[in-house]
Backbone:
C-alpha cells in the first residue's frame, strides 16, 4: 500500500514538474516580443481584433510588417474572442486604460457602435489626407457609411455565395447551375441530384440563419427596415412579409417537403454539419460565406464550384450585402494615437496587403488594384472558382437595399427571423410565422427608439 | 457469501459500462486530437495520418502555454489567499467570542445563496473604476476569500477538542500561536481539500475572465481555449482538440493528488 502511494506521489510530482516546465517555456516564448517593444520609444496602438486561424496569422504578419515599416508607432494586436463578446468589451471598456485605439467590429454592430459616440469616423482622416477612397470597393464602403460619412473602414469582407460539388454533378451528368442562378435553377440541380443518386446525395440546404434571410431580401431588392433600410433615417418598422420574401420562403418550404432540400437546423452545429456533409459528398449545394473557401478547398479532392447568391425567378439580381467586419478608431485616445491607428488602417488597405489577405483567408481583396497583384492572379489560376465572390461584389451597384441594414437591434432581428424560418421549415404557415416575427420586431424597435429618444 | 460471489461480476459489468459512458468522450477527444483537421471535418473516425502534429501546431500557433502560465499564477495566488483568509475567518468564528458573531456568520453564509453571475455587473463596474481591467489582479482580488471556505473550515475547527484550547491557554499560547501550531495542523486535511477545491474553481473560471481580460498576456486557459474557435471561417478542429487535451492535464493532476483528501474532506462538514 505504502509502496503504491509512493509511486503515485512520484507520478504526480513528475506531472506537476512537466506542467511547470511547460509554463516557463511559455513564459519565455511569449514575453520576448514585449521586451523588444519596450526598447524603442514608440507610441503604442492597441488593436483589438476577432480573427483566428490563418486570418490571425496573416494579421499578425501585417502588424509586424507595419511596425518595421516606420518608427513612430507600435501596433499591439489583441485578440478578443467572438464578434458579439467583442462589441460588449469595446463599449464597456471605453475610457479606461484597457480600451483599444483601433478595433474590428462586425457588420451588424455598425449602427450600435456609431450611436455610442465612442468613435472618430474615418471620414475625418480621409478628408485630411485626401485619401482616395474610390480605390476601395464601393459595395463594402456603403455598408459602413451613413449619410455620406464613412464611419469605419471595411476590412474583412465576405459575400454569401452558393457552393456546389462540381465533381459530384459531373458524376451524375448534371449541368452545373449558371453563375448567377435563379431559384428554379437551383431547384433543377437539387431535384436531379436527388433523383439520379437515388437519394444517396441530398440536393441543397439553406441554414436557418438570419443573415441568409436578409440576403434573400437584399438580392430581391426589398427593404427589410423602413426609411430605406435605415440609410435615410432611424427605422421605425420592419417588413418581413413582402411578396418576394414569401416567395423565397415558399420555395424553400416546397423543396423541403419534396425532399430535395434538407434542413440542418441553426447555429454553429448546423454549419459544421453541412460542411461535413458537403465535404464527404453527401450534400450537393449549400449557401455560406465566401470566407469558408479555405475550409472547403484544403484536403478536399472534389472540385468546388461557386455561384452568386440565388435570386427570385423573373427578375434581375439586385446584389447582396457584404458580411464580415470593419475597422473603427476610438475617440478616447489622443490625436497622435488616432493618427497612428489611421496609418495602420491605410497600411492594411493597400493593394498589396489586400491581395495577400484574400489569398491567406478567403476574405475579399477590397482594393481595386489588388486584382493585378501577382499573388492573387496565381490563386485565380489555381482555383478559378475563387474569382466568383469578388465578381459578385463588383457586379452589384450599391443601393439602399443591398448595403446592409442600419438598425440597432439586428441581433434581435436575427433571432426572430430564425425562429420564423425554423417554423416554416417544419411546415407551418409562412405568412403567419413571418407576421409574428414582424410584430415582435416592431415592438422591439419602438421600445428601443423610445428609450433612446429618437 | 455465495450471493456476493455471483453479484461481483455483475457489479463490475455495471461499473465497466459506467466507465465507458464517462470515459468515452475523453477518449474520443484524445483520439480526434491526433487526426488531421481535414478528416475531422469530413466526420471520419479513422485516418492514415495519425500524428502529434496538432500538438506541435497548438504550441506554435497559439498562446496556449502562456494561457497555462496565466491560469497557474491566478489559481495559485487565489488558492494561497483563500487558505490564509478563510482559515483566519473560520478561526475567529470558532475561537473568539464577540458580539454578533453568529449573526455575522449567517450573513457570510447568506452570500453563498447569491450566485456569482448575479453580482457580475456591480463587480465589473467596481473593477473598471479601480482600473484593474486586464490584469492578474482583477482575477485574484475578488476571490481572495470565499464563504464556502470559511464555512468548511469553521466546521473543521469546531472538531478540535475544547480541552486543547484550554491546555493551550494554560501553556500561555496566544491566538496566533494556537492558530499556527495547533489549529492548522489539526485541520490539515480540510485545508488540503480547500486548496484543491479553490485551485480548481479558479482554474475553471470562464465568465469573469472573459469579461475582464483583453489580451493573451493575462487570459487564462478556459477563455483561451474558447477563443481558438474561428469567426465565420475555417476551424482547425484538430488543433483545438489538442489544446483542450493540454488544458485538461493539470486539472487531472490536481484531482489525482487531491482525490484522497477530497473524499474525506468534503464529507467532513456534512456528516457532523
Residues:
Amino acid at each position: 500500500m505504502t509502496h503504491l502511494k509512493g509511486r503515485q506521489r512520484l507520478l504526480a510530482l513528475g506531472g506537476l514538474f512537466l506542467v511547470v516546465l511547460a509554463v516557463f517555456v511559455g513564459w519565455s516564448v511569449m514575453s520576448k516580443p514585449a521586451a523588444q517593444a519596450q526598447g524603442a520609444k514608440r507610441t503604442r496602438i492597441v488593436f483589438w481584433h476577432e480573427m483566428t486561424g490563418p486570418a490571425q496569422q496573416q494579421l499578425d504578419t501585417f502588424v509586424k510588417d507595419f511596425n518595421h515599416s516606420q518608427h513612430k508607432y507600435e501596433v499591439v494586436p489583441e485578440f478578443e474572442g467572438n464578434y458579439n463578446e467583442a462589441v460588449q468589451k469595446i463599449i464597456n471598456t471605453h475610457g479606461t486604460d484597457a480600451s483599444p485605439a483601433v478595433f474590428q467590429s462586425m457588420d451588424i454592430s455598425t449602427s450600435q457602435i456609431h450611436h455610442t459616440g465612442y468613435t472618430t469616423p474615418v471620414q475625418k482622416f480621409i478628408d485630411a489626407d485626401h485619401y482616395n477612397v474610390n480605390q476601395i470597393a464601393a459595395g463594402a464602403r456603403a455598408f459602413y457609411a451613413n449619410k455620406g460619412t464613412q464611419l469605419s473602414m471595411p476590412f474583412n469582407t465576405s459575400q454569401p455565395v452558393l457552393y456546389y460539388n462540381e465533381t459530384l454533378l459531373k458524376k451524375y451528368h448534371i449541368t452545373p447551375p449558371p453563375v448567377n442562378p435563379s431559384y428554379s435553377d437551383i431547384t433543377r440541380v437539387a431535384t436531379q441530384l436527388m433523383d439520379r443518386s437515388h437519394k444517396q446525395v441530398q440536393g441543397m440546404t439553406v441554414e436557418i440563419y438570419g443573415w441568409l434571410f436578409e440576403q434573400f431580401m437584399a438580392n430581391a431588392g426589398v427593404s427589410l427596415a423602413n426609411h430605406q433600410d435605415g440609410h435615410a433615417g432611424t427605422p421605425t418598422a420592419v417588413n418581413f412579409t413582402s411578396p418576394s420574401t414569401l416567395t423565397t420562403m415558399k420555395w424553400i418550404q416546397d423543396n423541403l417537403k419534396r425532399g430535395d432540400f434538407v434542413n440542418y437546423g441553426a447555429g454553429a452545429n448546423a454549419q459544421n454539419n453541412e460542411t461535413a456533409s458537403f465535404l464527404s459528398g453527401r450534400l450537393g449545394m449549400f449557401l455560406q460565406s465566401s470566407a469558408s473557401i479555405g475550409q472547403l478547398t484544403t484536403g478536399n479532392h472534389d472540385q468546388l464550384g461557386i455561384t452568386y447568391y440565388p435570386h427570385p425567378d423573373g427578375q434581375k439580381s439586385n446584389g447582396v450585402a457584404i458580411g464580415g467586419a470593419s475597422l473603427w478608431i476610438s475617440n478616447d485616445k489622443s490625436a497622435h494615437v488616432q493618427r497612428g491607428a489611421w496609418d495602420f488602417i491605410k497600411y492594411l488597405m493597400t493593394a498589396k496587403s489586400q491581395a495577400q489577405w484574400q489569398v491567406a483567408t478567403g476574405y475579399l481583396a477590397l482594393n481595386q488594384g489588388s486584382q493585378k497583384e501577382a499573388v492573387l492572379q496565381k490563386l485565380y489560376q489555381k482555383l478559378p472558382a475563387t474569382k466568383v465572390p469578388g465578381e459578385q461584389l463588383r457586379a452589384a451597384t450599391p443601393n439602399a437595399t443591398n448595403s446592409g441594414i442600419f438598425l440597432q437591434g439586428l441581433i434581435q432581428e436575427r433571432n426572430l427571423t430564425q425562429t420564423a424560418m425554423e417554423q416554416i421549415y417544419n411546415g407551418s404557415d409562412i405568412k403567419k410565422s413571418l407576421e409574428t416575427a414582424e410584430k415582435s420586431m416592431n415592438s422591439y424597435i419602438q421600445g428601443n427608439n423610445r428609450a433612446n429618444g429618437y | 457469501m455465495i450471493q456476493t460471489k455471483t453479484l461481483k461480476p455483475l457489479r463490475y459489468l455495471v461499473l465497466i459500462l459506467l466507465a465507458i459512458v464517462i470515459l468515452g468522450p475523453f477518449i474520443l477527444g484524445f483520439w480526434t486530437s491526433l487526426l488531421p483537421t481535414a478528416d475531422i471535418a469530413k466526420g471520419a473516425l479513422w485516418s492514415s495520418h495519425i500524428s502529434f502534429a496538432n500538438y506541435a501546431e497548438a504550441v506554435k500557433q497559439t498562446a496556449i502555454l502562456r494561457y497555462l502560465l496565466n491560469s497557474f499564477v491566478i489559481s495559485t495566488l487565489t488558492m494561497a489567499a483563500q487558505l490564509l483568509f478563510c482559515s483566519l475567518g473560520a478561526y475567529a468564528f470558532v475561537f473568539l467570542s464577540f458580539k454578533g458573531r453568529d449573526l455575522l456568520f449567517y450573513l457570510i453564509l447568506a452570500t453563498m445563496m447569491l450566485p456569482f453571475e448575479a453580482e457580475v455587473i456591480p463587480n465589473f463596474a467596481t473593477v473598471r473604476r479601480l482600473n484593474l481591467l486586464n490584469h492578474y489582479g482583477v482575477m485574484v482580488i475578488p476571490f481572495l476569500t470565499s464563504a464556502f471556505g470559511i464555512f468548511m473550515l469553521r466546521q473543521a475547527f469546531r472538531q478540535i477538542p475544547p480541552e486543547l484550547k484550554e491546555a493551550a491557554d494554560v501553556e500561555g499560547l496566544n491566538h496566533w500561536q494556537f492558530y499556527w501550531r495547533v489549529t492548522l495542523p489539526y485541520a490539515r486535511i480540510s485545508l488540503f481539500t480547500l486548496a484543491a477545491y479553490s485551485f480548481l474553481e479558479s482554474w475553471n473560471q470562464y465568465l469573469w475572465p472573459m469579461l475582464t481580460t483583453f489580451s493573451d498576456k493575462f487570459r487564462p486557459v478556459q477563455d483561451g481555449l474558447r477563443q481558438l474557435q474561428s469567426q465565420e471561417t475555417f476551424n482547425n478542429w484538430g488543433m483545438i482538440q489538442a489544446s483542450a487535451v493540454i488544458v485538461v492535464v493539470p486539472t487531472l493532476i490536481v484531482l489525482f493528488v487531491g482525490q484522497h483528501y477530497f473524499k474525506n474532506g468534503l464529507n467532513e462538514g456534512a456528516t457532523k
Summary: Chain B has a mean pLDDT of 85. Residues 68 and 250 of chain B are 9 Å apart (CA to CA).
